[in-house]
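Please think about what follows:
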Amino acid sequence: MIRRLSTFWTAFTMLVWTGTAFSAEPVRVMTMPFDIRAPQNMAYLSTEIPKIIQDNLSAEGADVVEAPELSPAEVQQLFDDADGMRQKAGRGKANYVIWGKLVFEGKKFQLTARLSPVPGMGAPEEFQSSGDGIESLSGAVRSLAGDIASRLFQRVRITQIRVTGNQRIEADAIQAAMNL
């Protein structure tokens, strides 16, 4: 009798723990249109940059929430208003809101994205990427999206690997095998 009861409680406890482990809700992210400041007419990038970020975040496991349509004047006005962005994202039931700005100076560009939790206070977290020419913009946006995903999903980035105490294989060979 005691054996059956202990088996039952063990099974029940495992089911409860398994249920709580798999019941974590996915991160819901709203990506607002970006403020574009360029000498040429590149207004289409205002919605294209968020689409690339959304695609990358969706592939990482985030739920993408549809952003409201904003005029270019609203986007420019709201860039420095984190509370306004949080308020707009809160209407869509998002956990996080992303917005940003792309500034072209000659051939060089500076891409800035901000990430803020929706029910949050304080300054948003800022991510930056830069490059030369429109050709390198998509790579810069994907890099920025990767940085944002690392922050959203709290992934740790390995910055250095040191190989010590190995006399048979050169450290360079180990790092090359690890594709570093």
In short: The chain has a mean pLDDT of 79. DSSP finds six helices and six strands in the chain.
